[in-house]
Specification:
single chain; mainly beta; 4-stranded antiparallel beta sheet; 10 strands; binds FE2/S2 (inorganic) cluster
């Protein structure tokens, strides 16, 4: 499983998603509740960037129609989205945030 450095931990503001690309895959990196999560940046309902949404209760809300996706599992908590969004393993090494998109966590 190849981990790629995506950003510095110190530049990640709490509850402010950061959009990055990992091996061509758009990923939203989110620091919240003392942890860092990585979730595919495209909503499973339509082609919308999740990193433009709000973070609350360890979930990211799609700004377009309001489905929230659990940052730990990628599962939507409510309609209109019904399919989960892939989530990816994250490693913190010093001030480096690393994400692997070759395997979903
Ligand atoms: S595009 Fe995300 S919930 Fe509709």
């Amino acid at each position: 499983m190849a981990f790629v450095r995506v950003c510095a931990l110190s530049e990640l503001e709490t509850d402010t998603p950061k959009r990055v690309e990992v091996d061509g895959t758009p990923v939203s990196v989110v620091r919240t509740e003392g942890e860092v999560f990585a979730i595919n940046d495209i909503c499973s309902h339509a082609n919308v960037s999740l990193s433009e949404g709000e973070v609350e209760d360890c979930a990211i809300e799609c700004w377009l129609h309001g489905s929230s996706f659990d940052l730990r599992t990628g599962k939507p908590s409510g309609l209109p989205a019904t399919r989960p969004v892939p989530v990816y393993p994250v490693k913190i090494e010093g001030d480096d945030v690393l994400v692997s998109v070759t395997q979903e966590s």
